[in-house]
Amino acid sequence: MNKIAALIFITIFTFGTTADVWSEREALKKIEQELKSLNALILVAKSQTDTSSRTTFNYQFLLSDIEKVRKGISSHLEDRMEPIVPSTIDALKSNYTERNP
Length: 101
Fold this sequence. Notes:
There is one protein chain. By secondary structure, the chain is mainly α. 59% of the residues lie in helices and 0% in strands. It has three helices and no strands. Helix 2 (21-47) packs antiparallel against helix 3 (59-78). It is rod-shaped. The mean pLDDT is 80.
């Protein structure tokens, strides 16, 4: 599991640390893709399991956890982004000329 965490952190920092929403979304999309590709590696490892071993790794839990994380990222990316609403600004006065009586 440490390798998965390291992969996620490396992917995040590969895209820089700017606080740009689009950069964040790109990084999250990359993480989502990496998590999808991990499934194949996990299934290969699972197929090489020695079932007669006294202890075994629970690959189904790992696959389930990775899928939950991937779905969470996917759900966040599918949410519509709220537009940035500028703060209200007092209207400018357009008449700068005063007339004396």
